[in-house]
Structures are given as C-alpha cells and as structure tokens.
Amino acid sequence: xxxxxxxxxxxxxxxxxxxxxxxxxxxxxxxxxxxxxxxxxxxxxxxxxxxxxxxxxxxxxxxxxxxxxxxxxxxxxxxxxxxxxxxxxxxxxxxxxxxxxxxxxxxxxxxxxxxxxxxxxxxxxxxxxxxxxxxxxxxxxxxxxxxxxxxxxxxxxxxxxxxxxxxxxxxxxxxxxxxxxxxxxxxxxxxxxxxxxxxxxxxxxxxxxxxxxxxxxxxxxxxxxxxxxxxxxxxxxxxxxxxxxxxxxxxxxxxxxxxxxxxxxxxxxxxxxxxxxxxxxxxxxxxxxxxxxxxxxxxxxxxxxxxxxxxxxxxxxxxxxxxxxxxxxxxxxxxxxxxxxxxxxxxxxxxxxxxxxxxxxxxxxxxxxxxxxxxxxxxxxxxxxxxxxxxxxxxxxxxxxxxxxxxxxxxxxxxxxxxxxxxxxxxxxxxxxxxxxxxxxxxxxxxxxxxxxxxxxx
Length: 458
Ligand SMILES: Cc1ncc(COP(=O)(O)O)c(C=O)c1O
Known about the structure:
The structure is a single chain. Helix content is 43%, strand content 16%. By secondary structure, the chain is of the alpha/beta class. It has a four-stranded mixed beta sheet with strand order 1-2-3-13.
C-alpha cells in the first residue's frame, strides 16, 4: 500500500506537468487526481490502497479484465521477435495478416477487409476519407455529406469530433468541419414526450429521411451511428428505430457506417451490436475491446461493395498511420479474440451474466431517484430524475449525476456519470457475485445522492 505522502507527490507532479483528456485542468490541479496503481480481474487499486470495482472496464475496453497473463505474454513474445515494422511500401508482417483474417471471420458477413488504426477516432477519420473516396470512384463526387446524430460520440480528432454530436466539443475549435450534418437522437426518455417508444423510434428514424431529402440524396455519402450510444448516456433506441433507418439508407443508397468501438466484441452479448440489431454495415469502425484495452489498436472493417471499389478502381489510397497494424498490438488483439472464443465469453454474456446484470439493475427502479434503467448485455444506463412519473430533468443538469458518481467512487465502484445518467459497462468476465456487489454499491451511491438533494431513501 502506498503512503499518503507518495500520493501527494504524484498529485503535485501530475498537476505541474500533465494535461488530462476531457478535464478542467485548473479544477483537477486544485483537487488532485486519483492515482490508479494496479488492476486484477474486475478490480482496481488506487495509491492509497483502496480496492475499486471497475464498472466501466477502464473506458469500455478492458473486456477481459486486468492481469491476463496470456495478453502480456502475447505482447512480450511479439516485442522480442519483431517490435515494429510498418505496413506501408508493399510490406507487412504475420500479426497484421493473421489479425485481418481473424477479424474477417468474427465480424458479420460481408466485412472481409480490415484497415488498421491506433484508436477509434482514427478509425472514424479513416471512415470519412473512405466514404468520400468511394463515391468519387463511383463517379458521384458530390456525395460528400455524412449524416450523424446529436449526442453521438465518434472520437476526438477533427473528423471524429465532427462526426460526433457533442455540443461542447463542437463549441471549441470551430467544429464540425464542413459537410457533416446532425439529426436528432432516438433518446425516448428525454425526447419521446407522450409517444410510445416505438412510435417515437419511427419518428426519430424518419428525421434521417427528412434530412436526406432536404440536402438532396445525391449529396449524401453515408449515415454513421453507434448501435447503442455509449458516451451519450447508453441510449438504447426503441425496437422500431434500426429497421427503419436501415430501410431509409437502402432506399437512398446511403452507406451505413456502424460504429462498434464500444458495442463490439461481446459487450451486448453478441460479437457485435450489428448482430443484436440485425444491421448490415458497409463500414464498421472498431477499437477498444479489440485488444481488451491492453495496447492501442483500432480498425475499419470494410464491406464488399466499398472494398471492391477501392481495390479495383482506386489506385493508391493516400492514408495510413505509422503504427497501422502495429505487430505487438495486433498480437494482443489476436490473443484477445482467441480468449473470447476459447472461454465462450460472448455466449456467457448473452445467456448468463448479461441477463442477470440487466435484471439486478432493474431492481433499482424502486429507488426514488431512478427514472429508467436501460441497457443490453453488460452495458447499462441508470437515468436519474427528480420526478420519475413525468420524466422531468433536473434544473441543474449533471449535478446529481456527478454527486452520485463521486459517492460511488468513495464506496469503491467506478460508475460514470453522463449528465444525470449513471453509466455501467463492466469487464465481460464479471461474475454473478461481483454483479451483486456492483448493484449493492450502486444503490448505496444512489441513497447518498438522494439524501444530498433531500429525497427520501428507497
Ligand atoms: C463509439 C465510439 N467511437 C469512437 C470512439 C473513439 O475512440 P478512441 O478514444 O479510441 O479514439 C469512442 C470512444 O469512446 C466511442 O465510444
């Protein structure tokens, strides 16, 4: 166990030199960062020796949990054999080849080619360049516009943040870049009013059609969406939404890009969210769970139609990254997929832990602060509300969520707040007993948050 003095030293150094992602630098420097020093299974330890159940699998990525020897050994072996070589200039190496072939096996039918990146953001940058290149090669260079949704998250590079629909991100640095359009999201709890979820789902899907018609179908290249919005608050679309969206994309010949960076690799109890919602993506960005977060790697899985055009008519595609398909990252990704298969983890999430997690979380609906519990598999959002009968939002959005998140951390649970939704996405290896512990801690955090705002306990 590290001493307080060591923690204070770390915090001082951190405040002096480290600018954290998505952070108010001055506020954090005043408070001091929490220092995470170790992980094992679904648990983390901080520098003061506190054990914390990681209800977020890092950032939706450490799907196999911490401390998997096989992943460490796969990286070490590859670093010894060949730590780096590139995939430019007509060369490659065995891990990149084998991973591309393995991905063609485990992803939905038709996605047979992989373009490697280092992250989900870079995968979405790659998507933007690919869809525009595709339409240029099809003789339709006016098809430039990509339609996305407000409150979507597709990354933090210029293209990723533009494709995403996060207003605070757009407000900094003149985003979105041109020819990215945003429509409303299928967030029934916030936007559905008196409509039944399925009625609202159809209306939300038809916002896509209206926007395509307003822009002119001949100018629209693609529609991009997460199967379930993750960073937006685990927004599960009504059942009527996705079939209608897919119909609209086909009708106007718009490419469908399904961002599986969070939903992929078993999170929803299927290998990909596309399987859960019966989607047939033309392009599929992936990252995070691809390597269980042990090393950074992402990819775009490319469907037959786009791949054939790029391969047969494209000539050189002027795009790529030094570390596209990095050998050690690829080796870890291969081992991650092998473990998922060997231990039948996706099946276990589908049949056992996913349903149990969802059922146990729904018990929280009796809590006065909880307006809705939504989710699929091992991904869930707990919507807080001051008046659940009327689905009323809090006057000061996000304050109660933050209070609840801070209490959860103090109790020993990582549960993230997105506005006033509490978000959970634990490692896929979580057991029933650990789910019980998670739900118990979540309830304690809700009780403390309710007490703070003067609400009675459940
Ligand atoms: C759906 C989705 N797409 C893309 C990204 C960006 O991935 P990265 O942070 O690896 O760039 C994220 C990150 O959370 C995400 O949730």
